[in-house]
Here is the input.
Amino acid sequence: MIWRWQKWCKKKLLVELEQTAEVRRLAAALEARQAPDFEAWESLMLQAARQGGAGVLGTLLAHWQQHASRKVILCRCGHRMSSRGRYGKGLLTTLGRVPFRRSFYQCERCCHSRFPDDEHLDIVHSTESSALFGWRIYAEALRRGLAQAKTVIALTDGARYNRTIVQTHFPQAVHIVDLFHAYEHLTAIAQILWGQEAKAPKAWRELLEAGNIARLVSTAGQYLPASAKSKKSLVKQLHYFEHNALQMCYAEYREKKFFVGSGVVEAGCRTVIGERLKQSGMHWSVRGANAIIALRCCLLSARFEDFWASRIS
Here is the structure.
């Protein structure tokens, strides 16, 4: 008890010293100005709060990684994945950039790779959080006439963070899970049951295209593998269809002439990003890649002049 009390007192003292140092730094910055400027004071305080918040967020992430229970990581093919070390990236959050290091797992059999911590935290595979990414999509949708649209369609891959973005920013939208991502999960079920070369039976594909997800899950669920690991992987794939059943009414969507595939968007990503950043011999830092992507998006969206006009003003 005494040791804990001493530790708490030491931590409290360090916090108070840090707060005092921050107040002195802000005071020195304010004294450098010739006249009182409330907006400048407010800006400095906001900047300091964000910097402090980013530090706290980084500490919380590290604490969560240290104390979170670790489970066996399984590949979509049903085999156990092995850790290949820890890799870092910068998370661009609303508080600022936060460093984040997490374990990289890979399957020795099919070479599929995953960052489980990214999945647990719903972090998009880029340099910013899914929450900030959602606000970017919403802002772009408003710019393109969201308020005037009679029907809004949100086409996603069925990932949990995408569902959160749709529910937060586009609650009235028709949410559709990309049919070809659904095909991939259907093929994964077949591979778990019958090997890596297996393809989903035609009857399963027809049930999927008809939007009869309940019957599809019931039919595929009749085949239970003997291995506990494979069984767990199969259940996970079946849950994907159960959780996204309401967004898989493909026959109905096609009747209404809605897009059910994200191929057009993915082709756009290849044109905008792949053709510029994935040429032979290219190597990029995260900061450099982000800068080039932003510049290229401005150019191809015909917003280059508007961008610089807003920066100058």
Notes: The first strand starts at residue 81 and ends at 93.
